[in-house]
UniProtKB/TrEMBL annotation, chains A, B:
It is a multi-pass membrane protein. It holds the Pfam family MgtE_N. It comes from the Bacteria. This is Magnesium transporter MgtE. Acts as a magnesium transporter. It comes from Thermobifida fusca TM51.
Amino acid sequence: MTDAKKPIELDQLVAANDLVGIRLWLAEHPPYEIADALTRLPPQRAIIPFRLLDKERELEVFEELDPSQQQAILMGLRDSAFRELLEKMGPDDRARLIGEAPAKIAARALAGLSPAERRVTAAILGYPEDSVGRFMNPDTVILHRNLTVARALEVVRAKGSEAEIVYVMPVVDDGRRLSGMVRLSELVTSNPDTLLKDLVDVFTPRVYATDPAEDAARLVQEANLVALPVVDSEERFLGLLTFDDALELIEAADSEDIARQAGSQPITGHYATVGVLRLARARAVWLLLLIIASTLTINVMQGFEATLEQVTALALFVPMLTGTGGNVGSQSATAVVRALAVGEVRLRDLPRVIWKESRVGLLLGCMLATIALIIGSLLVGTAVAAAVALSVVAICAWASIIGSTMPLLARRIGVDPAVVSAPLVSTLVDATGLLIYFSVARTVLGL
Amino acid sequence: MTDAKKPIELDQLVAANDLVGIRLWLAEHPPYEIADALTRLPPQRAIIPFRLLDKERELEVFEELDPSQQQAILMGLRDSAFRELLEKMGPDDRARLIGEAPAKIAARALAGLSPAERRVTAAILGYPEDSVGRFMNPDTVILHRNLTVARALEVVRAKGSEAEIVYVMPVVDDGRRLSGMVRLSELVTSNPDTLLKDLVDVFTPRVYATDPAEDAARLVQEANLVALPVVDSEERFLGLLTFDDALELIEAADSEDIARQAGSQPITGHYATVGVLRLARARAVWLLLLIIASTLTINVMQGFEATLEQVTALALFVPMLTGTGGNVGSQSATAVVRALAVGEVRLRDLPRVIWKESRVGLLLGCMLATIALIIGSLLVGTAVAAAVALSVVAICAWASIIGSTMPLLARRIGVDPAVVSAPLVSTLVDATGLLIYFSVARTVLGL
């Protein structure tokens, strides 16, 4: 990679207010690296190097930024520069920016647009948040199915340089209904007299504008598409979801799932620029619910206080047992949530998943019980050790079943399976695991 | 999406051995959906519908499968069909299949190839596993920098239909050194007399064949590339990492990180077809290490046995405290591991990350301590409740610091930060958290 070659970082140059140095740095770096460096600066400082960019590269850098960073940059621009930048943006990026901006910026932005661009933007904003309509790009070359290859290439030559980069193009009928897609490379290599309708692939996947954006992005990935056509309810072509937007959607979805798996709410924005308060807020909700839920463990412990007083050694193993149960349950939950996310498991697989995970849990439980038996025998004697070992088997099987079932049940009731986080499973397994432990101990020890 | 339209599933048709039905089903579905359905069948059954595919679609479906599934299919084919399929595969897919296959299949595969194809495959296999060299496609149209646009288009017409789908092409000098990339759409829309060297972008990112594949894939995403050129140490062009392979690499890397975060080893292959033993093995290693590490909690509890006997109520809060500490630590660890994976945090940010996370932990700790104080006062009285509440503050701050520091330290010593899993952090915080709790309790209660 190119990382080793740049000893001086942009933030140092900005801190030193070295305008000549900044200009040089900008000239030597590609747009995506400039955008990355701007992201690491505090918003009020990012405007300094941004203003020094030459006009052609300004847009490319700007479109690489997060909506929140774009807002900060826009706030720092004069009115004319503000309008110019927005007018040049791709309609999908612009709509996303305006959709997420505070009302004041959104109004200023819409007011500054030309009527044509304002119409396109408003149309995109009409689709529900997180629908693919919000992410599609309507700005592409559209070809009629009765064109010949030679005529189609003329259309591309005439319009191609204004539109977004063209790799594939929609082919439509008289009613603008999508017939299929044609690749530019097919046009270049095909006989000039061939009609487009004879070239298009009958299996072209398509999505409706109101479909969830994440599902559409996963389809782009599954079907290896450079761009997925988006249509309205009457199959009329509306725009393209391109591979780069799909990649971004998948990365964002994975980041969200990962955050949820740890019991955090997803935060948008760059880790480096997110404040302490926002981070704490994202994590607080689940922690609060879980500490309240963990009151159950106190109740269980209180219910068995007499047992604990008779055999105080039982208390020693509580952290080990709750820890192990939590670990096994988290593993199952994480595996099933991921399998659901990438489409490897579906709702109707529920019985098979439970059957598989309970066997996995039982197997792991037997293995861990052996260790627990050895550790327990060495530290407190065989009777308590036997109770602990038996509990480990039961808790592991139980934790696997809980961990694997809950994400599928969440999906069934229409909740994102990723909310079945490792901490949630651990907390549930803690209380029920203790119940199992003390019941087993009472039986084994004859109390 | 198209899901609602297919009431009959392929597995039902295969189970009923309904060959006519299978043929019909295959004709009605695109290759990526066929591949998905084959994946859900047991390997020895997947060969039945695969043999019924028509020749043109066979390859497309086959290339969509995982290497392990490809092996199972190959084993079920006659020698001639086996050779024909391998010869038609893309060199990168073929190399990956052979690289991961058992020696017997690999030898049979290499032996069946034509000398030219065998050379290309062997070259790809020469690169280290997980390097981008293993994933690049050498089969593309290469253009000389002194060509005109018109000549270049003739080259594309002559060679374009044999090579992989062409969206962008490498432009090289006499020594095959990469000058940059040119898009097919630029060729189509540019003046025919322009020289390619005047068209190529000076900022073309490139990677070396030995660079890690995941880093290259993230670069494809960051720079929105349809294909990233791969060069050797002398900057000579070797092949392209295309967006679809990058997408697959990122999805696989995310799946691996997610599995590691839950304390599992990543498994390759589809969840539905992975056996119980393999799942258990992937999860066993960490569980074993962690249950042994959790012996520390027993030691801590034993060390404070006298305190526990004096105030038995202290034992009641052990699961709540270890649970909360684990949750807070997991959140920090997960956030930092993800920020590292997507490049939002780098090693040199360590002090800033610790400073940020410790403030987040302290804030969350104060909030949770309030709840703990209320719950504790209601259940066991204010003295013990005060000890619990103070411990919550300290444990949360400590857990955040542990959780955020460890992934960065792992990166520093060259270990994948994702091995700093939620269960690992929880287990470490369990023992140290108990130490904090009993020390605080002794001081507060004056024992």
